[in-house]
Amino acid sequence: METFILDTSIFTNPHVFKQFGEDFEGAVKVFTTLAFRSRAEFYMPTAVYEELHKMRELGELEADFERVVKIRSPRRLHLSIPSELLYEFIEEVRMRIDRGLKIAEEWTRRARSEAENNMGIYITKLRERYREAMRRGIIDSKEDADLFLLAYEMNGTLVSADEGLKKWSDRAGIKRINALNLRKILEGLIEHNPPG
């Protein structure tokens, strides 16, 4: 049986959820119907489910969603991951900190040489560049860490549009699918596993 570990991006990223429906409620209804019929297992870590609740209100759809998607955190205290991953992660963070400092220095020099009234523009651009250098392509939240660890623990297939999760799941040998293909994959599972 297929096991899928779901990220919030499936339900909050318009490019992704529109494969299921035009609006959030319609997308969740179609997803839960297809997921139930697919006879696969679906999991979402508690922290990710709480994040989804902060972003979108499930309302009357909550019971159907929880009927299909099991809410479960990884067993963090009993889970071992290869130390090589930790070393790679630390090296990546160090490299990003250095890159972030260089960006801060560059924009500080630019702001000093420009007129005082452009300072707000420079601060905004600095923040954008710094955020991209520090956060893009890395696991940067407890929600991302829980998705990564649960997929690793359960040998499940990670479903996310997050670039950092994609990159680090590849490094760890975690199966993953492109979140934009989830509907077609579920329909294929239904076709190849008819009820009865």
Short description:
The protein has 196 residues and is α/β, with parallel strands linked by helices. It contains ten helices and five strands; from the N terminus they run E-H-H-H-E-H-H-E-H-H-H-E-H-E-H. Strand 4 (157-160), helix 9 and strand 5 (175-178) form a beta-alpha-beta unit.
Task: Provide a descriptive summary of the structure in words.
The structure is a single chain. This protein is an alpha/beta fold and 196 residues long. 62% of the residues lie in helices and 10% in strands. The protein has 10 helices and 5 strands, in the order E-H-H-H-E-H-H-E-H-H-H-E-H-E-H. A 5-stranded parallel beta sheet has the order 3-2-1-4-5. Strand 4, helix 9 and strand 5 form a beta-alpha-beta unit. Helix 6 packs antiparallel against helix 7 and helix 8 packs parallel to helix 9. It is globular. The model has no long low-confidence stretch (mean pLDDT 84).
